[in-house]
Amino acid sequence: MLSDLNRRVIIATGDARTGKSTCLKLVVDLLRSQNKSPVLYDFDKRKKFKGYSKLIPVCDNLNFFKGNTDVILDDIEEFDEEVVLVDMPGQYVGEMLEEIEDCYFFEQLKRSGWQVTFLQPISHRFDCIDYLKQIMDYSGNLAKYVVVKNLYFDKYFIKFEKEVSQQFYKLGGVTVAVGKLQQSVYQKIEETAIPYQEACNSPKLFLLYRSYLYRWMKSFNEQLLSNHLILEYLGIK
Amino acid sequence: MPELIEHAFDYIDEKELTFEEAMQPGNKISVEGRTKGWTRNFKTAIKPALHLLGIDDA
Fold first, then answer.
1. Structural domains of chain A, count
2. Which site among A41, A208, B19, B27 is 20 to 30 Å from A202 CA-CA?
3. Structural domain contains residue A192
4. Do A74 and B30 touch (CB under 8 A)?
5. Are strands A114-122 and A7-12 parallel, antiparallel or unpaired?
């Protein structure tokens, strides 16, 4: 039965350099560890998923401003997979919502048995909270929301707590935190373009780096796996 | 008149569909969605001129 499946389109949103691609990579590794094979649509031009294309189908070279979101809608009816990940370009939240409106995105997905989760990393910058608010104002309870507090940037997210948390939790939103990975470790992993899970065992990285990476991933994964709402929102359960 | 995305317009042309038909299930899901969105936007845009066309704004 189609309705028995938890088929999710997970859209990573927010301003640039908050960790959208990083969070998606972590989610890909987690999904794969749970025997799920997602499909990834990358609207970001920086080709950050090069290493993951050998593990999962990665559809890139998409142009957000040329209606390429339609590619997702047309592909989705053919999928056996239960999770689709979308890396949106940073900053264009207004345009993204217009696109959602123009192609009846929520309605068309729902008809095919899919639901939407917005995955938004937040940093110390205030913009990301404004973006989150715009998304929640527009989408309301048509979507689910996961906010990832990126501890690389800050420990406290006062604007989130003060201005949007009430609305966020009312809509069933869930927060998790992604820890601070040392910049040198992060850079090295990005340079090697090896998927995170694989990098934990790769001789291309110093043992110490691998150890940091492993602990960083473990801490993130444990939060996700211990929260039944997140498991649902990310299409794991 | 709002713009209808090119691939949807081409699809409708090629299949010789009316806009109403293009919004029905069985077509490409993106074409259905785009046509619904375009029709909604068109209805909003034409509202001020409905009386000139002899149409009641119900």
1. 1
2. A41
3. no
4. yes
5. parallel
Predicted pLDDT of residue A1: 44
Q: Give the DSSP per-residue string, A37-50.
A: --EEEE--TT-TTG
pLDDT of the residue at A139: 97
Residues on chain A touching B29 (C-beta within 8 angstroms): 73-74, 76-77, 108, 111-112
Q: What is residue A209's predicted lDDT score, i.e. its pLDDT? A: 95
- Across the range A207-219, mean pLDDT stands at 96
**Residue B34: closest CA among chain A residues belongs to which residue?**
A103
**Residue A124 sits in which domain range?**
2-181+217-233
- Report yes or no: B5 at the A interface, CB cutoff 8 Å: yes
What does the alpha-carbon distance between residue A181 and residue A144 come to, in Å, rounded to a whole number?
27
Sign of CA dihedral B13, B16, B22, B27: negative
User: Poorest-confidence range of A25-34, A65-74, A189-198, A212-221?
Assistant: A65-74
The CATH number linked to A222 is 3.40.50.300
Asked if the structure places residue A200 within a domain, the reply is no
- Looking at residue A5, its pLDDT comes to 64
Domain assignment of residue A39, yes or no: yes
Task: Identify from A7, A63, A70, A107 which residue to disrupt to test chain B contact, counting B C-beta atoms within 10 A and taking the largest count.
Answer: A70
Are A135 and A39 contacting, i.e. CB atoms less than 8 angstroms apart?
no
Whether chain A has a CB inside 8 Å of the CB on B9: the answer is no
pLDDT at B58 over 80: no
Q: What are the domain boundaries of chain B?
A: 6-46
- The radius of gyration of chain B's CA atoms, rounded to the nearest angstrom, is 13
Give the pLDDT of residue A174.
98
Residue B33 distance to chain A (closest CA, Å): 5
Chains A, B: CB pairs < 8 Å: 44
